[in-house]
Structure formats: structure tokens, C-alpha cells
Design brief:
heterodimer; A: 2 domains; 16-stranded antiparallel β-sheet; elongated; B: mainly beta; lipopolysaccharide transport protein A fold; 26-stranded antiparallel β-sheet; 14-stranded antiparallel β-sheet; 1% helix; globular
């Protein structure tokens, strides 16, 4: 009776985290380490969290069910974004993604390069460090918080933002600029403001 | 607000840069649909006006440009405020409303101003050098004023000086600058005109006049008062003047009396004009002249007749009805006559330049009856080869002096004289000097007058020395040595002078020694000096001249041969100078306003 109850509890917990049940598709070998419980795909493969709608693709993968997924020369495909980096780490318990060493983050609105990235898959926002956009609008920032669900991003200074002939910049560390976008008949329309909304500010947690 | 060497960088770390336009440092900003709205103040630097910095409480972008509210504009020398401004993106012009600007030397305001580059253009401008907080003593109004930051000067067009309720015209263009602030001579004349019975001059004493009060296009008024001293009768002046291409007129009371002069001009052909009018001058200086006249005038200039020379022809036919009182006798007669004249100027050659004027006249006076002819020849030869210049003038008039009227109207007198001048002028040490010879001879002198009118040799110099300027002079008059009729006014004397001029002081020594009667010997040994007494805002500069000759010759007290006083008041409007000087039988006054400090 007690054994059944533990199993039900664990199963229930496992079902609440959309990354708990991973579907793994190796591109070659699959090596399971009994001692650590870590599986390595030396030839790469795909790890999908179908409930979360996230697929991790890497040239080399390591994962531990319910704990982590680590991918090298990796790519993450999600409903709201596509991410590529030399190394990506998925913390299943925290439901967060982190990447470093030349990250490229793509969303329908922004195409960004950054040194580091942290995505909170629960709250649905990304925090990028030393970020430069490679599309329109052109922007650079010490930190960029992208809240796709709010159609907004927060630039943390020093920053530079350019839209056509207008160039906004601030040399002060920690100075904030809100960027919002909306889709119109003419396409994407951007609004910038130094008046930061409370909901966007809440997504920003400086170190 | 002080202009900062670093520009706007100290205003805020946040900046909006607009390519090709400039930068806006701001506190808060929202950009939506390509339009920007700023709050919390902005500081703007424009590429088109790099010397200026703008601050505003609010800035808002529009498709055509930028609107600013409560604007402060500053450069290194000038600060300005405006209620609003608009920057036109196409013309790159900043237009300001209700502008007030101030520099260390002047204040400017205007209903509107526009900034282009380094120039601020004011419309309906008011300017003053009274930079103090109190109400300005005077204002200069102008439809347009231009402040040029590059040269730090203000150019006013068609300015009008406003002092109290008085408006006085200024030169068409007036420039106020730090380096060359114009000395604005107040359009007020203070003069002293003494009588001279020998020359037939009736004086009017001490008087004050405003000679030119503008009323309308070509119409002005002269107002004044003479005889303010006890030796002359009090006399008011109110003379209306009209100066237009087709008409001139003077109506009212002048210094000498009432007059009504009106002349009309009608151009019949480019070289032919009709004139007619009337002159009414019922006072002694004009022998109580009254007449009406009409005539045709022909004028033609012929340039380059022989290459580089000029010839001018003039002819006139006239008819007039004239009346005068000559030596107590009333003369009334028509005047019918004609004039013809030729004026020729040669080109300048190595042999010099020749000017010749030949005038002929013939007039009939049917009522008297009489007639008068006149033929006058005036050649002048000028030769220059630095440092030497020579001039010889000859003047000969043949006439029968047949006019029954006086010389103030048309009576001609015989003339026959010659004059010559030779001058050497040029650098002398660190200064300059000149040596001149002058002589004139009258072949038709008045009875008892020496025909040799002038024979003089003069030398003078200006020599800078140790921070002061030294002016030595020496004049030898020798006509009195050649005086066959013992003319007492014919001079033979030696005059020597030495003046030393410092920053604000002068010391002078003049002496005169007569060689001939009526007073041979030392005639003058004069010491003069002026020196400043400086107080906080006022400087008094008295002048005194003492003739010591009576003391040396007859043990009498020195004679005061000159006196004067100049008051200089340094105010926040500029420096005002008021003063007088009586010296060498001349009375001069000075009233001037120096714009700036």
C-alpha cells in the first residue's frame, strides 16, 4: 500500500514537470552509465520534451532522466524561439535553459547574439548578457530580458538602440529601456520607452 | 544656465542621436510609430548650429520636425530664452518665439528669432547695451536684427533709437560688436555761434538742436533753441524739411528767421528737367528775399571722351520775379537769364591731373533796367608722387557786377587769385611726419588788404615714444614780410608747438612770435593740460590753458586762454560723454554714447 502510494506520488510529480518525460532519438550509439544514471549520445541526437514543445538537438548529448540534458554544438527548437550555442544545459528540475559561448537566439521579432543566455521555461522569459541584435531593430545591451508573452523586452544599460535614423543610447550601467512590439498591417511596429511597466520590471532580477 | 564646455553630456547619460541632425540628451522618452515624446527636460545639440546648446522642458517630434517648450539657448557668449521653438527638418532651421537674449555687452529681444548656423535672426527686435537689471535707459528698435556668433556682433537694420518717448533715426545699418563698438553720436547738436561783425556773421549764442527728426518718407523736422546764454536773444527753431526726388521744401522758423522754400522738379527727358518754385526768406541774412522762379536745366555727362577723362555739361534758362532789400533800398525786378557750364577732369598721367571748370552767365533785369554777365575759369592741377604732392589752383571771374540784388541772390564780384600747395609726407622714425608749403595771391584785393594772402611753411610729426605720443609742430607765416599796403591782418610769425598725449591725459606747449606790426614780439606762450579724475563710475577730465606771455612781458597774471570739462559716465548701458571746450576762440561741445563698456 505504501509502495503504491510512493509510486503514485512520484508519477504525479513527474507528470507536473513537462520535461520529466523525455523522448530521446539517438543518431548513433547510446551509452548508459549504471553508476551515475547518465546516458551519453556520442554521435548526437535529439531530446524532446513533447509536452513543453521543446526539442534539443546536439552533436553530442548527455542526459539524466528527470535531472538534466546537456548538449554540445546544440540547437533548441521551441514554439516561441530557436536557440543555438556551442553548449546548452537544460535543468529539468528548475525548468530552465542556459547557454554560453556565442549564443544565437531567434524569435519572430528579434535575432540576437549573446555571450550568455538564461531562459526561464516556466515564466517564459529569456535573459541575455552582452547581447547584440543582428536584425532590425539594431540593439546592443549589457543585459536584455525578452518576455515574449508580453511582446516586450527590457534593455539594461549600457545600451544602444537604433531604429532607422534614431539612435538611443545610455552610458549608465543599469539604466533601463523598455521595448514593445506589435504586429500591424504594415508589419512589426516597435515602441521604446524609459517608462518601464511593472510586469516587465518584475521579470528583471539583476545580480 | 551656464554653457558647459562639455556640452550636453552632463545633462543625462541618455541620448537620442538623429543622423545628420544632432543629439538630444533626455530624462524620459517614448518613441511610438516613429514619433518621439520627451519629458523631464532635454538638452539638444544641433549639427547645423554646433556653437549652441538648447535645453527645453518638453520636446515632441512631428513628421515635419521637433517642437520644444520653454527653451533655453546658450553659447559661450550669449544666453537666450524662448517660450517655444520648432526645428524644421527640411530647412534645418530652428525658429523661436518670444525670444530674449543677453550677452555681456547687450540685450536683445524679438517676437521671433531663427537660428541658422552661428547666426540668430531676430524679427521686431529691441536691442540695448543696458545689461543691468533695471529698465533700460534706451532701446534700439529694428524690424530685423542679426546676431552673428562667429564674429560676436549685432547688425541692426533701419534702427530707431528710443529714449523715453522720443524716437530718433539711426544709420541704415548699425553694427554693435565687442571689438568695434560704434560710438553712437547722439543726434543732438549743442553749439555756440558767436557774432563776427567783420565777416557780417550774426551769431545766435548757445543753442541746442535736434536737426533731423524723421516724420515720414523724406519728411523731417528740426527743433531747437538758441540764445540760451545771456548775450543773445532766446530763439526757437522749428523747421519742417521735405526731401523727395520730385520736390524739396523747407517751411518754418530757422536760426535766422522764418522761411518758406518750395521747389518742384519734373524730368522732361533724361538730360532735361523743369524746375519751379518759390523762396521766401524775410530776414536780414538773406536781405529779405522773396521770389518765384521757373526754369529748365540741361545736364549731360560724357565719360571717357579722350580715354579715362570726364566731361560734364550744364545749361540753364530761367525766369524769376525777385524782391530784396539791399542797403535799405527795396529792389523789385524780374530776372531773365541763362547759365552754361563745362567741367572737365583729365585722366591721371605721370604729369598729374588737370581739372577745369568754365561757367558763363547772362542775366537781364528789365525793371531797373540793367544786365549782368559773368565768366569764370577755374583750372586746378594736381601732381602726386609719394611722398611729394603738388596742387596749383587758379580762379578768375570776369563780371560787370550789374545785378541790382545782393550777393546772397545773384550779384557777382570779380575774382582773380592763385594758390599753390606742396607737401612731403611719410614715415618718420617710428611715426609719421609732413612738411608743407602753402601760398596764395589775390590779384584783386579789397582796399587795404595784402594781395599776398598766405605764404607759410609748416612741419609736423606724430612720434610714439614710451607709451605716449608726441606731436611737435612748427609753422612759419611770411606773408606779412611782403605787405605793401601795411595790412594789419597780414601775418609774419613763427609758431611752435609740442603736445604729449598719454592714455587719458595731455600736456601741450604753444608759442608764437610775431615779426611785424601791429604786435611784434612774443605773442603767446601757452601751457595747456587735461588730466582725468577717476571715481567709481565717473571720470572728470578738466582742460585748462594758460597764456604766460602777459606774465613774462608785462608782469600781468597769466591769461586763461582755454578751459573745458569732459564728464565720462560709465553705466551699465555704456559710456556717456558730455563736455565742452573753449579754446582758440572756438567753443565746442561733445555729447556721445559709446555702446558697451
Amino acid at each position: 500500500m505504501r509502495r503504491w502510494l510512493c509510486w503514485a506520488l512520484l508519477s504525479g510529480l513527474a507528470l507536473a514537470n513537462p520535461f520529466a518525460a523525455l523522448v530521446v532519438t539517438p543518431h548513433g550509439e547510446q551509452i548508459f552509465d549504471l553508476a551515475t544514471g547518465v546516458t551519453t549520445l556520442p554521435n548526437g541526437g535529439e531530446v524532446a520534451a513533447r509536452e513543453a514543445g521543446v526539442v534539443l538537438i546536439g552533436q553530442r548529448l548527455r542526459f539524466q532522466q528527470g535531472v538534466f540534458v546537456e548538449a554540445h554544438e546544440a540547437r533548441v527548437e521551441a514554439e516561441a524561439f530557436i536557440l543555438s550555442a556551442p553548449a546548452i544545459f537544460l535543468d529539468i528540475a528548475q525548468q530552465s535553459l542556459s547557454a554560453s559561448g556565442g549564443v544565437v537566439y531567434q524569435s519572430p521579432e528579434l535575432v540576437l547574439s549573446a555571450e550568455q543566455l538564461q531562459i526561464d521555461l516556466v515564466k517564459g522569459h529569456a535573459v541575455l548578457s552582452n547581447v547584440v541584435s543582428t536584425g532590425v531593430p539594431l540593439l546592443e545591451a549589457a543585459v536584455l530580458v525578452v518576455a515574449g508573452d508580453l511582446n516586450a523586452a527590457l534593455l539594461v544599460g549600457p545600451y544602444r538602440y537604433q531604429d532607422g535614423p534614431l539612435v538611443l543610447s545610455s552610458s549608465e550601467a543599469g539604466d533601463l529601456l523598455e521595448l514593445r512590439w506589435s504586429t500591424t498591417a504594415e508589419g512589426l511596429s516597435f515602441t521604446v520607452s524609459t517608462d518601464i511597466s511593472a510586469e516587465l520590471l518584475a521579470r528583471y532580477a539583476p545580480d | 544656465m551656464a554653457w558647459a564646455e562639455a556640452g550636453c553630456e552632463d545633462f543625462s547619460p541618455r541620448v537620442l542621436t538623429i543622423e545628420g541632425l544632432g543629439s538630444v540628451w533626455y530624462q524620459n522618452l517614448t518613441i511610438r510609430d516613429g514619433l518621439a515624446q520627451f519629458a523631464g527636460g532635454v538638452c539638444v545639440e544641433l549639427l547645423s548650429a554646433p556653437s549652441w546648446r538648447l535645453e527645453a522642458e518638453r520636446l515632441e517630434s512631428t513628421p515635419a520636425g521637433f517642437k520644444l517648450q520653454v527653451v533655453e539657448l546658450s553659447s559661450q557668449e550669449i544666453t537666450a530664452t524662448a517660450t517655444a521653438a520648432f526645428f524644421d527638418l527640411v530647412g534645418e532651421v530652428l525658429t523661436l518665439e518670444q525670444v530674449k537674449a543677453q550677452s555681456p555687452y547687450y540685450r536683445l529681444s524679438g517676437a521671433q528669432a531663427r537660428l541658422q548656423g552661428d547666426v540668430l535672426w531676430f524679427t521686431d527686435a529691441l536691442a540695448t547695451t543696458c545689461v543691468c537689471a533695471a529698465e533700460a535707459l534706451y532701446l534700439v528698435g529694428s524690424p530685423e536684427a542679426r546676431f552673428d556668433l562667429a564674429y560676436n556682433r549685432v547688425l541692426l537694420r533701419e534702427g530707431v533709437l528710443k529714449i523715453g518717448g522720443l524716437s530718433l533715426p539711426l544709420p541704415a545699418e548699425l553694427t554693435i560688436s565687442e571689438e568695434t563698438l560704434a560710438n553712437l553720436e547722439a543726434p543732438l547738436v549743442v553749439e555756440y555761434l558767436p557774432s563776427d561783425p567783420e565777416r557780417g556773421v550774426v551769431g545766435s549764442g548757445l543753442g541746442v538742436r535736434v536737426p533731423n527728426l524723421p516724420l515720414d518718407d523724406g519728411l523731417s523736422l528740426e527743433l531747437g533753441v538758441t540764445g540760451l546764454d545771456v548775450d543773445y536773444p532766446l530763439n526757437a527753431i522749428a523747421l519742417l524739411r521735405l526731401r523727395r526726388p520730385d520736390m524739396t521744401a523747407e517751411l518754418g522758423k530757422g536760426r535766422e528767421g522764418w522761411q518758406i522754400d518750395v521747389t518742384r522738379y519734373e524730368r522732361l527727358l533724361p538730360w532735361l528737367s523743369l524746375t519751379y518754385g518759390t523762396r521766401n526768406r524775410p530776414y536780414a541774412a538773406q536781405d529779405y528775399l522773396q521770389e518765384a522762379f521757373a526754369g529748365v536745366v540741361m545736364q549731360q555727362a560724357i565719360p571717357n571722351l579722350l580715354g579715362g577723362d570726364r566731361l560734364a555739361l550744364r545749361g540753364e534758362l530761367f525766369a524769376a520775379g525777385s524782391s530784396q532789400v539791399v542797403n535799405g533800398i527795396h529792389v523789385l525786378s524780374p530776372r531773365l537769364g541763362g547759365l552754361a557750364g563745362i567741367a572737365y577732369r583729365s585722366s591721371t598721367t605721370p604729369l598729374g591731373r588737370l581739372d577745369v571748370a568754365l561757367d558763363a552767365s547772362l542775366t537781364s533785369y528789365p525793371s531797373t533796367p540793367s544786365w549782368q554777365y559773368g565768366l569764370r575759369l577755374r583750372p586746378t592741377w594736381t601732381w602726386q608722387h609719394a611722398p611729394l604732392s603738388l596742387t596749383v589752383r587758379y580762379d578768375r571771374q570776369w563780371t560787370n557786377s550789374g545785378s541790382p540784388f545782393s550777393t546772397t541772390l545773384d550779384r557777382l564780384m570779380p575774382i582773380h587769385n592763385v594758390a599753390a600747395t606742396a607737401t612731403i609726407a611719410g614715415p618718420l622714425g617710428s611715426g609719421a611726419g609732413s612738411l608743407s608749403f602753402s601760398g596764395s595771391y589775390n590779384f584783386l584785393p579789397e582796399p587795404g588788404r595784402n594781395p599776398l594772402q598766405q605764404l607759410s611753411l609748416s612741419a609736423e610729426a606724430e612720434l610714439p615714444m614710451g607709451g605716449v605720443s608726441v606731436y611737435p609742430s612748427l609753422v612759419l607765416n611770411a606773408a606779412g614780410w611782403f605787405n605793401p599796403v601795411a595790412d594789419p591782418k597780414s601775418l609774419a610769425n613763427l609758431q611752435a608747438g609740442l603736445a604729449v598725449v598719454g592714455d587719458a591725459w595731455t600736456v601741450g606747449l604753444r608759442t608764437r612770435y610775431n615779426f611785424v606790426a601791429p604786435q611784434p614780439g612774443l605773442d603767446r606762450l601757452e601751457l595747456s593740460s587735461s588730466f582725468p579724475l577717476t571715481f567709481a563710475t565717473v571720470t572728470l577730465t578738466p582742460f585748462a590753458a594758460l597764456d604766460l606771455a602777459p606774465t613774462l612781458l608785462t608782469a600781468e597774471p597769466p591769461r586763461v586762454s582755454g578751459h573745458g570739462l569732459m564728464l565720462t559716465w560709465r553705466s551699465c548701458c555704456g559710456t556717456i560723454e558730455v563736455g565742452y571746450r573753449q579754446h582758440d576762440n572756438q567753443f565746442t561741445t561733445r555729447l556721445a554714447l559709446h555702446l558697451g563698456r
